[in-house]
């Protein structure tokens, strides 16, 4: 028996992965982290508190949260050589390519990280990754503008610090708008984990070889980079910009229905209903636009959604907006270039990748990833005595 009953051509592994971290009901559009509904976490929690929840299974006590935030703050700075590594990239290097490379390089700065079976060493790498990825992400953005890199200022909160590293132009103070900082924190909560998606499956598969977490992270981020996955937020904006005007939407929809193009930001491997994250992001966008001004591309996105949700082609295929459909409009309105959007997905997913990696390592039945194969090639045959 080749386990055909559980074989699905769309999946890397033919066996399901056991996990207690995130629950999704794709038909009902339900998403819960450790049992807490995403809607409640987005309203009441912070990204760092949610990261603790994903990693530890429970919400932290007040003291645990204070200690956790301090642990993260002590690791936000990166070795100066990372700047020199980044300076080697072309001026127009894609930020996601730079982030993947620089996180992989972190493995050479922390050789102790190979001892991942030591819980204290493992936890220190978790602190380092959650703390340093925003710093490296901001470096990527500054590099793309040819601007000096900003160092973290730990008196600021997690998303405030990141916004300041992105946009502070001189050594003078930079006070990020609190509405934008909170909106970014909500976006980070929404993107933190999502069960066994492509990049998380990569994190688990690569991590199952006992490699260090920086190398596994680089592989997961590489999977996320794809336009069918975390690169979709970038692809959505390029799609909206190519449509250009609301009057071009019906023509674009026809091209989708003729299978000439995909409606980026729509559809999902699991959700066959509205992605609950898209609902919250759409509401958060309105708050952001109060501060930044309405993103002119929003009208095109709303028209695409209105037509698609009432068109048999999309309804029959259960295609709804996913997490990537509206997020890019917010990032663009915050002042980020489209190429930074996949990086904005990778930053918060750091917590989910690490929680899933940790769960995999702590699972006593976990073995190195080795997906089953159904052999479809030649039956045994002999080497020919001569060749035609
Ligand atoms: C993320 O897995 C996760 O959890 C991922 C993620 C996370 O948090 O980690 O949620 C993040 O990756 C969200 C998805 C972002 N990607 C995009 O927005 C890219 C556009 N979407 C599609 O590429 C697609 O919907 C996928 C890749 C997301 C899902 O692909 P599936 O599972 O193959 O889609 P499906 O089997 O449900 O498709 C059913 C039908 C097919 O048509 P038929 O062959 O049956 O006629 O719908 C069509 C598909 O061709 N279809 C689309 C479409 N998505 C599916 N047609 C037009 N536009 C689309 N976007």
From TrEMBL:
<dbReference type="GO" id="GO:0036440">
    <property type="term" value="F:citrate synthase activity"/>
</dbReference>
<dbReference type="InterPro" id="IPR036969">
    <property type="entry name" value="Citrate_synthase_sf"/>
</dbReference>
<dbReference type="InterPro" id="IPR002020">
    <property type="entry name" value="Citrate_synthase"/>
</dbReference>
<dbReference type="GO" id="GO:0005737">
    <property type="term" value="C:cytoplasm"/>
</dbReference>
<dbReference type="InterPro" id="IPR016142">
    <property type="entry name" value="Citrate_synth-like_lrg_a-sub"/>
</dbReference>
<feature type="active site">
    <location>
        <position position="268"/>
    </location>
</feature>
<keyword id="KW-0816">Tricarboxylic acid cycle</keyword>
<dbReference type="InterPro" id="IPR010953">
    <property type="entry name" value="Citrate_synthase_typ-I"/>
</dbReference>
<dbReference type="InterPro" id="IPR016143">
    <property type="entry name" value="Citrate_synth-like_sm_a-sub"/>
</dbReference>
<keyword id="KW-0012">Acyltransferase</keyword>
<keyword id="KW-0808">Transferase</keyword>
<dbReference type="InterPro" id="IPR024176">
    <property type="entry name" value="Citrate_synthase_bac-typ"/>
</dbReference>
<comment type="pathway">
    <text>Carbohydrate metabolism; tricarboxylic acid cycle; isocitrate from oxaloacetate: step 1/2.</text>
</comment>
<protein>
    <recommendedName>
        <fullName>Citrate synthase</fullName>
    </recommendedName>
</protein>
<dbReference type="InterPro" id="IPR019810">
    <property type="entry name" value="Citrate_synthase_AS"/>
</dbReference>
<dbReference type="GO" id="GO:0032787">
    <property type="term" value="P:monocarboxylic acid metabolic process"/>
</dbReference>
<comment type="similarity">
    <text>Belongs to the citrate synthase family.</text>
</comment>
<dbReference type="Pfam" id="PF00285">
    <property type="entry name" value="Citrate_synt"/>
</dbReference>
<feature type="active site">
    <location>
        <position position="324"/>
    </location>
</feature>
<dbReference type="GO" id="GO:0006099">
    <property type="term" value="P:tricarboxylic acid cycle"/>
</dbReference>
């Amino acid at each position: 028996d080749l386990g055909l009953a559980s074989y699905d051509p769309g999946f890397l592994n033919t066996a399901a992965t056991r996990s207690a971290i995130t629950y999704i009901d794709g038909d009902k559009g339900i998403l819960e982290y450790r049992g807490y509904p995403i809607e409640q976490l987005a309203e009441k929690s912070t990204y760092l508190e949610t990261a603790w929840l994903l990693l530890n299974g429970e919400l932290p006590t007040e003291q645990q949260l204070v200690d956790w935030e301090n642990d993260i703050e002590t690791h936000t700075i990166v070795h100066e050589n990372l700047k020199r590594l980044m300076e080697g990239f072309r001026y127009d290097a894609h930020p996601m390519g730079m982030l993947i490379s620089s996180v992989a390089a972190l493995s050479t700065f922390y050789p102790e990280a190979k001892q991942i079976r030591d819980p204290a060493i493992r936890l220190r790498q978790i602190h380092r990754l959650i703390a340093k990825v925003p710093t490296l992400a901001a470096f990527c953005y500054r590099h793309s503008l040819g601007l000096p890199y900003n160092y973290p200022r730990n008196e600021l909160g997690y998303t405030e610090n990141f916004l300041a590293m992105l946009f502070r132009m001189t050594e003078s103070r930079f006070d990020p708008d609190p509405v934008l900082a909170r909106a970014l924190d909500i976006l980070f909560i929404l993107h933190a984990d999502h069960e066994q998606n492509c990049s998380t499956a990569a994190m688990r598969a690569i991590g199952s070889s006992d490699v260090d977490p920086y190398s596994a992270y680089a592989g997961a981020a590489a999977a996320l980079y794809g336009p069918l996955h975390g690169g979709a937020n970038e692809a959505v904006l390029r799609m909206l910009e190519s449509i250009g005007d609301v009057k071009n939407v019906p023509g674009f929809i026809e091209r989708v229905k003729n299978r000439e193009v995909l409606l980026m930001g729509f559809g999902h491997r699991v959700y066959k209903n509205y992605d609950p994250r898209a609902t919250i992001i759409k509401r958060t966008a309105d708050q952001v636009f109060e501060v930044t001004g309405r993103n002119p591309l929003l009208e095109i996105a709303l028209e695409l959604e209105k037509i698609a949700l009432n068109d048999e082609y999309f309804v029959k295929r259960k295609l709804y907006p996913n997490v990537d459909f509206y997020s890019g409009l917010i990032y663009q309105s915050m002042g980020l270039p489209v190429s930074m959007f996949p990086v904005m997905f990778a930053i918060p997913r750091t917590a989910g990748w690490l929680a899933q990696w940790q769960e995999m390592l702590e699972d006593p039945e976990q073995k190195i990833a080795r997906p089953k194969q159904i052999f479809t090639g030649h039956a045994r045959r002999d080497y020919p005595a001569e060749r035609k």
